Amino acid sequence: MYGSVKKSFLTGVFVLVPLVVSVALLLWFFEKVDGLFSPVLDGIVQVLFPGTDHVPGTGILAGLVIILVLGTLARNVVGKRLLDALDRLIQRIPGYRTVYSTIKQLTNAFSPENTKSFKEVLLVEYPKEGSYALGFRTMTVEEEGRQLVVVYVPTNNLYLGEVLFIPEGKAVRLEMSIEQAVRLLMSGGIAAPRELRRVKDGA
């Protein structure tokens, strides 16, 4: 009984912490951006529309624009090089680089631009015979002459799951993109397609 309660408590902590940290960081970001850009944007609005007072939300709008610009930069060669240089600079900061690297690895795994962490979407028999779960192939390893697929199976939250080592022949490759699979998991199965199609041999 105690072991079950302890496990449930720890699972709850690991589910809650990423959620709280993410929300807190977003609120902090928008608060800082709002405080930084609101005076400037208010000045522009007052020039265009004399007599207009503070327009709430202008700083948040600026924050959304910044996120969009960063996303656009990250998708082109020049912007990617600039962000890589900034990333290397942050990695040199003692203490902060540990936290930064951990969060970055978790978020990068599910990024639409990610092409390294997850190779493809698989259907695997888990957690028992006759029951199947959606998983992500991360790599393939050898064990005493046989090929084993390393599969990450989210079990509670996208960032919580199991790592399985299963024979290549028991992993069903699906015609589904990483983004589609993440959407399916985040929707609790509501976004599941009516038909799961296997990748044809040789594809």
What this model shows, in words?
50% of the residues lie in helices and 20% in strands. The chain is α+β, with helices and mostly antiparallel strands and 203 residues long. It folds into two domains: 2-109, no CATH class; 120-186, SH3 type barrels (Roll), CATH 2.30.30. The N and C termini lie far apart (49 Å). 7% of the residues are buried. The mean pLDDT is 76.
Give the key terms:
203 residues; 2 domains; alpha+beta; 5 helices; 5-stranded antiparallel beta sheet
Class inferred from helices and paired strands = alpha+beta
Q: Biggest β-sheet, characterized?
A: 5 strands, antiparallel
The span between the termini is 49 Å
Tally the helices.
Answer: 5
- Please list the strands of the largest sheet in the order they lie side by side: 4-3-2-1-5
- Uncertain segments of ≥5 residues (pLDDT<50)? none
How many β-strand stretches? 5
How are helices and strands ordered from N to C?
Answer: HHHHEEEEEH
User: How many discrete domains?
Assistant: 2
Helix percent reads 40-55%
How confident is the prediction overall: mean pLDDT? 76
Choose one word for the global shape.
elongated
Q: What is the percentage of strand-forming residues?
A: 15-25%
Cα radius of gyration in angstroms: 22 Å
Helices and strands in order:
Elements: H1 2-48, H2 58-74, H3 77-91, H4 96-109, E1 120-125, E2 132-143, E3 146-157, E4 160-167, E5 172-173, H5 178-186
Antiparallel strand pairs: 1-2, 1-5, 2-3, 3-4
Helix pairs in contact: 1-2, 2-3
Give a quick summary of the entry.
By secondary structure, the chain is α+β, with helices and mostly antiparallel strands.
